[in-house]
Amino acid sequence: MVKHIAVIGSGTMGRGIAYQAALAGFFIHLQDISEQSIENAKAYIQSLAKKSADKGYINIEQKKIINENITYTLDLQEAVKRKDLVIEAVIEKMDVKIDVFKQVNEAGPGNAILATNTSTMSPTEIGATTKQPDKFVAMHFFNPVHRMKLIEIIRGMDTSDETVEVINTVAEKMGKETVEVNEFPGFVTSRMNCIIGNEAMNMLMEGVASAEDIDKGIKLGLNHPMGPLEMADLVGLDSRLRNMEYLYYHLGEKYRPSPILTKYVKSGRLGRKSGHGFYDYE
Ligand SMILES: NC(=O)c1ccc[n+]([C@@H]2O[C@H](COP(=O)([O-])OP(=O)(O)OC[C@H]3O[C@@H](n4cnc5c(N)ncnc54)[C@H](O)[C@@H]3O)[C@@H](O)[C@H]2O)c1
After folding, report:
1. How far is CA 71 from CA 45, 65, 67, in A?
2. What is this structure's pTM?
3. Atom of ligand 1 nearest to the CA of 120
4. Would you kindly state where each structural domain of the chain is located, as residue ranges?
C-alpha cells in the first residue's frame, strides 16, 4: 500500500502533485536541485492551501495536513529513502530524466514504484534504464493539478498489471479519474493538445486573427474551456517547445514546432511563468 511518496522536481507540476497528494493524506518529500524552486514551491503550496481554506474548498484540518505532510529538500537520497512511490516531474529532457532515475536507483528505494510525469516521452525507454522496468510507469498529471480531473496512465512495454493497479488506486485516492494508454509519443492528450496549440500559433504567425480572437473563437465556437494560446502560456512555452521537438523527431512533419513558438522561447517569453507569452501577465 502506498503511504510515502517522493516527488522529484518542484516546478509547475511537482509542486501541484505534492499539494494534491498531501491533501489526499500521503506523506510527501518534495525534492529539487534548485533552492529557489523549492522556496517558490513552498510559498505556492502554502498560499494555495490558505486560499482554498479561505474559500471553503478545503477545511482547516486539511490545510494543516498539507502544511505538515510535505517535507522540502535538496537531497535526493533523503527524498527517496523508504518511499513506496517516486514521481519524477523534472524538465522534459530524456537524458535528465534517465539521470534522475539512475540516482533514484542508486539511493535504492527497494520495491518502490517509479513514475514519470512526462508529457510525451517513452516510459519504456526510461524504465529500461531502471532496476525493475515492470515497476515503471508514466503517470501524466494535468496543470493545475488540484483542479484537473484526469491522470493519464501510460504503460511501457514491461509495466506490470500490478503497477497499473497501484497507480489507479493512488489516483483514485487523490480524487482523480484515469485513462489507460499504450505507449506512443504524446499519448492521447499531449499529442492532441500540441497539434491544436501549434495550429493556433501558425494562425497567429500568418496573421489570420489576433491571439484574443483565436482563443475566443475556439472557446465560444468549439466549446473548449480554454483557448489554445492561453493554454500554451499556462503550460510554459519552453515546455511546449520541448514537447513539439520530441513529437517532431518521432512522428514527423505534422508536428514541426511553429516558428513563432521557437522565437518566443528564444526571446525569454515563456508564458505565465515569465510574465509574458502570447499574453502579458504583469
Ligand atoms: N507544465 C505543464 O503544463 C505540464 C503538464 C503535464 C506534464 N508536464 C511535464 O511535467 C514535467 C515537469 O514540467 P514543469 O512544467 O513542471 O517544468 P518546470 O520547468 O516548471 O519545473 C521543472 C523543475 O525540475 C527541476 N529539475 C531540473 N533538473 C532536476 C534534477 N536533476 N533533479 C531535481 N529537479 C530537477 C527544476 O529545477 C525545476 O524546478 C515535464 O516532463 C513536463 O513535460 C508539464
Report:
1. 12, 12, 9
2. 0.94
3. 43
4. 4-182, 189-271
Name the one residue in this structure whose C-alpha cell is 516531474: 89
Ligand 1 neighbour 270 (Cβ under 6 A)? no
pLDDT tens digits along 215-237: 999 999 999 999 999 999 999 99
Atom of ligand 1 nearest to the CA of 99: 31
- Would you say domain 189-271 falls under CATH 1.10.1040.10? yes
Please state, in angstroms and as integers, the Cα–Cα distance from residue 3 to each residue in 47, 85, 164, 205, 264, following that order: 25, 8, 16, 48, 42
The CATH code of the domain at 4-182 is 3.40.50.720
Is residue 6 pLDDT above 90, yes or no? yes
Give the position, in ligand 1's atom list, of the atom nearest the Cα of 97. 31
Question: Residue 6 Cα, ligand 1 centroid: separation in angstroms?
Answer: 14
Q: Is the separation of the CB atoms in 140 and 189 below 8 Å?
A: yes
Distance CA 193, CA 45 (A): 27
